[in-house]
Write a structure and sequence with these properties.
This protein has 3 helices and 2 strands.
């Protein structure tokens, strides 16, 4: 297959005698070189389970010590939204890695 050929369009404009769709599969058929799509992320995936909760607790405490917003720190560290970050923090609290939100009376 030629590099300058896009299915349905001959991009170089040269009249080489070949039809533009000669190297393309029929409509509805997958591209021969398509292969599997590779999913890439901007950051590595956050660890799950105990290790992930431990890291959430570490980020939360570090932000508290610096006087920064701990929820925002967890959001930035995990790449998750506010709601998911709050859930992660709650899981870390439930696991005993962070102090309870309110003192029990």
């Amino acid at each position: 297959m030629r590099d300058d050929l896009v299915c349905g369009v001959d991009t170089d404009g040269a009249d080489d005698g070949a039809t533009p769709d000669a190297a393309c599969p029929p409509a509805g058929q997958p591209q021969p070189d398509a292969g599997d799509a590779v999913v890439r992320r901007a950051r590595p995936p956050w660890p799950r389970g105990t290790e992930g909760r431990r890291l959430v607790a570490r980020e939360y405490r570090a932000a508290q010590d610096e006087g920064a917003d701990p929820v925002l720190a967890v959001m930035n560290a995990t790449g998750r939204g506010r709601r998911r970050a709050l859930r992660l923090i709650a899981q870390a609290r439930d696991a005993g890695l962070l102090a309870p939100r309110h003192a029990r009376r």
